[in-house]
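To illustrate this point, we now present one chain and its tokenised fold:
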Amino acid sequence: MDLNLLRRRSLFSSKSSRSSSRSSGFDAMRFTKSLASFLMALPILIMLTMIFRHNPSDSLTGFAYAIPFFTNVTTPPLLEVDVSQSTKDKLLGGHLATGFDEHSCLSRHESILYRKISPYQPSPHLLSKLRKYEDLQKRCGPNTQSYNKTVEQLKSGGSVGSTDCKYVVWKSWFLPLDFPITNKFNSFGPKSLESYGNMLKNNLIKASMEPVPPYLYLHLAHDYDDQDKLFFCDDDQALLKKVPWLIVRTDNYFVPSLFLMPSFEHELSMLFPDKETIFHHLGRYLFHPSNHVWGLITRYYKAYLAKADEKVGIQVRIFDEGPGPYQYVKNQISACTLGEKLLP
């Protein structure tokens, strides 16, 4: 389904509908809560989380099978370490907040020793929203009163009213073992009865319904259908913003689609005046390996990359759910890099 058609659907709605949508909560603070949560789970972030987890055998992730292929994964190009740079731009242009315990996550402040200085500066609006999002995490994060309340509502399985905090959970995240409904995660897919698209098809849900379900499953993977794609319409967001828990499965980088939504477009433009830098800024803010993993990265760098004249980064995506043709893929990579003269 063409997303431009979805945009026209929203644009052709009545003025009163737009006014209602705006007044129903699509203001800057609402946007911060929803968009920041969505962006926290970009596909590559999920991949890194799966790779670098101490215990990759968690049955809830569905990604344990992918670990062996990435055992020799390298980081993006790094520079020779210069300790004299350790006090320069440790906050990465303002992406990071002050007051953080540096020893608890060394990579947050040591990565500047290895990487090139970024030519892109984050917008003041983005930095302001990041600080507000961090405050939101303190109020709504695990073991807070709001979090415990919504978990209890999720356990009850009944419809719920308004809640202080809303949550977006990617299907492949590592979750507490006692988290409700994880036993359903493996069954979530394009044909799931709980999916938003299928509930729309079966007339089981509509924007005006009260109270709302305790959770909804959003299928936004490569095989989603036209009903699933209604997620990208303002009219449908009016309902989704009320649901306390949204369970998401996606292998798409769908941030560009948010620019087609009138309710998000202006705010996104203020956050990211240069659209091409979105992933760059979010990556700098999000990707901070644990101390254990950072030790592996730095040791690998010093052993194999520090003295290299040229470094080439390759992203590999495999969708097979079985063991995978890894040797075949490795052969493809070798043939491509040699054929294109990327390697000597």
